[in-house]
Write a structure and sequence with these properties.
alpha/beta; 9 helices; 22% strand; globular; 10 strands
Length: 292
């Protein structure tokens, strides 16, 4: 499913937890894992000090990737290791492109400070710019499970959501999981006058049509169990998180950009909020059409 997986790591506990989950996936699908550490040489203090400081960063990085590689090899997973210098997010994206990586796995936050930082805002930049799916995992969550049993795909019918649906469908098929299709509607955007009832009906009809199309796609692709739900909430992220908790969702696959306008919006900044707050792993997918 994901033959080549990239794991950027800063050696933090969050990265360690993400690696455990990644190795479960790699073991099940015979994937090769690329373990990358980026020595951040773009920070002002590093640029001014250079020399010994850069050497220390690289030696630290070599230790970090070696420790991660040892854990992978204990599981029988093939690994490639590398330490590079540069801006973390752009180095990660460039590496993924140059090595034909199929998936990037990152925790949502990592270490901060002069000696090294990798994640947090770096993860969000990778999510926005990577051409391949990015799986993000909360650093405090050491209980994520694999294989997945319940995969959620929120959709607004956009090209990006369709791409996320395709990836989510592949995962559901590979793991024998139930595929949950969700259209989330923000109630605060509907207003309070009589026109809001008409608007709500139009929105729900559109959402139902989108879900029916998505369900037909997944069923035709061979997914054995598919559900469709329209969920209302005070915000899109809260509606999605509520569904996650109520249905024991193990993974959310979502596009990085979606439609905007009166009838609905889902993604873009909403995806970034979900990456930060989702209680389960998030798989973000950037469309080649890249709707903005």
């Amino acid at each position: 499913m994901f033959p080549q997986i990239l794991f950027p790591t800063d050696g933090s506990q969050g990265a360690s937890n993400a690696l455990d989950h990644l190795l479960d996936i790699a073991t099940a699908h015979d994937s090769t894992v690329h373990i990358l550490n980026v020595a951040n040489t773009t920070k002002d203090t590093v640029v001014r000090m250079q020399g010994d400081v850069v050497d220390v960063l690289e030696r630290d990085g070599e230790r970090i990737v070696r420790d991660a590689a040892d854990r992978a090899q204990e599981r029988g997973v093939a690994v490639v290791t590398e330490v590079r210098q540069g801006e973390p997010y752009s180095t990660i994206v460039d590496y993924a492109n140059s090595r034909d990586v199929d998936l990037i796995v990152m925790p949502t936050h990592g270490r901060r400070g002069l000696e090294r930082f990798l994640l947090g805002s770096t993860t969000e930049r990778v999510v926005r710019r990577a051409d391949v799916p990015v799986l993000t995992i909360r650093p405090t969550d050491d209980s994520v499970t694999y294989p997945y049993r319940n995969v959620l795909v929120p959709t607004d019918g956009s090209d990006c959501a369709r791409d996320a649906l395709e990836v989510g469908t592949d995962i559901a098929n590979a793991d024998g999981a139930t595929l949950h299709l969700l259209s989330a509607i923000e109630t605060t955007s509907l207003g309070v006058d009589v026109r809001s009832d008409i608007q709500a009906t139009m929105i729900e009809d559109t959402a139902t049509d989108i879900l029916e199309d998505a369900s037909a796609f997944a069923t035709d692709a061979g997914v054995g169990s598919v559900t469709e739900t329209v969920e209302y909430g005070p915000s899109i992220p809260r509606a999605i998180r509520s569904y996650i908790e109520d249905h024991d969702v193990d993974l959310v696959a979502v596009g990085t950009h979606g439609r905007t306008g009166l009838e609905r919006y889902l993604l873009g900044s909403v995806t970034e909020r979900l990456v930060r707050t989702s209680p389960v792993p998030m798989l973000t997918v950037r469309s080649t059409a890249s709707e903005q």
